[in-house]
Amino acid sequence: MSSFKRKTTSKQQSLQPGTRISPGSTSTIITSTGIPSLDDILGGGLPLSCSQLVLAPDPHSAYGELVQKYFIAQGLATSHRICIVDDDARDFLSECVWIPGQATHSPSHAADDEEDEKAGEDDAKIKIAWRYEQMKQFQTTVSDSNQSTEDYCRTFDLTCRIPDTVLQSSVASGQVILVPVSAEAEDQPSVRILDAVEQILVDHAKSSESPAPIRICIPSLGSWQWGDISPRDISYFLYSLRSILRRHPFACASVSLPPPLCTETWGGAGWVQKLGWLTDASITLAAFTASPSLTAMFSAHHGFVHIHSLPAPHTLVPPSDRFSTLRGLSSSGENNLAFKCMRKRLIFETLHLDLEGGVGERRTTPAPNAMAFDEVVTNAHPQVGQTANALEASAGGNATVQVEVEQMEVAASSMSVADDRGEEKVGTVKKVKTKKKVAFMSDRPDLYDF
């Protein structure tokens, strides 16, 4: 009998509310960001002792701050401690999303909710053919039905706000810690904030043997409240914050930068890639607001999702490479990702075109340009040498194209045919089908170089 015995733990590790074991490593504890599709991209959630960075370069939107509001709301719903670093932290906290049913709705919102439920029931029934009713519908994002029943990830509504009673009780009990940025007679508050955050984590670790997870949220790192800050200061702050989180395995952080600081023009060439090296997870939400052509092409989405880095605290390969559904590495390679902000929620999904190459509704009549071309051909007289002007291209073509239709007719009523006996027979000639030729004439022949 062998003397070697396998070491096993006497009891299973107890998990705090709102946490679970990472599917990629049993020694990694993850928590939810509040958005199920973003959790899927990160490999199940944001690991504790890690930081994530959300870049939103569009100055006309606030998608980066919206992700932070989900992050805070998820922490409040699961009784996690929250540290918000901002001068307007109370106002930012009051604008966070909340769980539907636990916050008051306005009458208009209640009516809209009923209409959305009815529309969802109508859309759920497939009206194409009876044989397709049993087929699985095409899914572009992950379903939150499994997570909504658990305490790991709650379902939030963008039309709901946190009640004042919850805000007052959380601040009074110390669940929410507000850290101001600006201070008198101080030029660089980054060092002071790092010391304050580390002191908060040290005191939280001393409070109990198994401290609850604590979330550090910085909605706008490098804004005007931080004074005159340089790319070197941003790099030093992110690197120091990540090293602090490594020493406290029960904490995680989520950071956003102002739109001007999210572009290569502010930090120099390779700035966005450098930010990905300084954080565990880094993504960019590139909105379509500044590009009307992309808005028209992808009308069902609001922007692209670019992944710069993914968390892998105890593994060589990020768990997202093996367990992410949206990235799709297990089947057909990485998919393009996009996001859209609906009236009630923010969704990350795979990028796809609408029906019929971008047309939202199925067309039952010919296209307008096709009808106009048919009229030109119909009104043309069937004689040799007739010319019809074609329509100008709607895509901005400046060349004028002329289509010349030539028809060949054979005018013969009868002919004599001699048979083998030498007798002549008069017969009619079969009608020959008219041959049509099309020639393109343009003042810019380089456009039609076949």
Automatic annotation (TrEMBL):
Belongs to the ELP4 family. Pfam families: PAXNEB. Pathway: tRNA modification; 5-methoxycarbonylmethyl-2-thiouridine-tRNA biosynthesis. GO terms for cellular component: cytoplasm; elongator holoenzyme complex; transcription elongation factor complex. GO terms for biological process: tRNA wobble uridine modification. Residues 1-28 are annotated as: Disordered. Its main location: cytoplasm. Keywords: Cytoplasm, Nucleus, tRNA processing. Signal peptide: none annotated. The keyword Electron transport does not apply. It is found in: Cytoplasm; Nucleus. Residues 17-28 have a biased composition (Low complexity). The keyword Electron transport does not apply. This is Elongator complex protein 4. InterPro entries: Elongator_complex_protein_4 (IPR008728), P-loop_NTPase (IPR027417).
